[in-house]
Amino acid sequence: MDYYETLNCKRDDDLAFIKKKYQELVIKLHPDKTGGVESGEFVSVRRAWQVLSHVESRRLYDAMLTNSNLSQDSTVWCEVNFDDLRKTEDSCCYPCKCSGSYEIDSEQIEELKENREIDFLLCCDSCSLQILVIF
Fold it and tell me: Which of 2, 25, 57, 111 has the most C-beta neighbours closer than 10 Å?
């Protein structure tokens, strides 16, 4: 369960609404209302509020949620036409926005072409971004 679900709200809800939901849950789950026992649910509500109540931590949390919802290990930065790759004698490369590079050797390219692949993913050598290269 993500923090938004914990607080019974959605990602696009504003901070005032999230705060209202948090306060309702804290009142309902507070140890004074549950016989002096701090429940796991109460702790989860407090942790969710700690993250979602601050602009920067909420932004980072939202980015993490977005990445975790992708069906891949990293994010595709952009699509690149194969002809836009810089070609050398034994490889092709493309610059990443992090100043790293996407590289593939000529043998791998020939193998992709032989297998009639229409596109492929390349990982940056410095960050977690990928590009989708289209033949």
Answer: 25
